[in-house]
Specification:
The protein is α/β, with parallel strands linked by helices. The protein contains 6 helices and 11 strands. Helix 2 runs parallel beside helix 4.
Length: 264
Amino acid sequence: MSIDKPSLLSQVTPTKKMAPRRILLYGVDGIGKSTFGAEAPKPIFINVEKGLDDIDAHAFPRAESYQDVMKQTYALATEEHDFQTLVVDTADWFERFIVHYICEKTGANSINDPYNDEVNFNKGIDLVLDWWEKWIDLADKCQEERGMNIILLAHCHTPKFKDPTTDSYHRYEPKLSKASSERLREWVHEVLFATYEVFTEEKDEGFKQKRNVGHGSGRRVLKTVRAPSHEAKNRLAGMPDEIELKFSEYWKYVKGAHSNGASV
């Protein structure tokens, strides 16, 4: 006697929904990264560095170790609360905790200690990613089971980018190790670069010589699309390449993408 099995096609469902977002926002010093996080819906900060004294928000006691960050994230993932956004301030300082934790556990002098068999030959880099994954698993639970947005804040630096199509050049990226940056950029929905608006003006130098001169307006903006000058991405159709540095401005495009049938 044959047993009817439900058709796989009967299990097909629409994928688009207004789900919490995962954001990596990085930028220059003092640009307003923490303020962006504080503007998100009901935020709770994991305070890894001392930068919240002038921010009106809720925060755990300052984290001083990898274990502190994990315990605080676990509490948000498993306990009842009404917070809607987890803000890690900052991811690069959190990575320092990870490196310190690994060195402490292995007895290594550095994450690439050539004399330590647990971290040498790039094994230390793999360990950093392993410990990041443990945190990502908890952050995913915060999102999936508690409906929380996740915002990772980070400082920036300007490493040399090896472009296979042209000469190498420097560009802005999150101030993380290369492997960690790649993994987090893959995990989040949006990578946003916070900076000041800059425009160029062509100046006549005489003798038929001209040069471009940069000027700043003082306006704070978010770059949302990757360019030679910076790393960025977004999954929101209709999002401009540059928007004002305000969470409400960003969220406007998140809601718009779900209300007009655009891809998210």
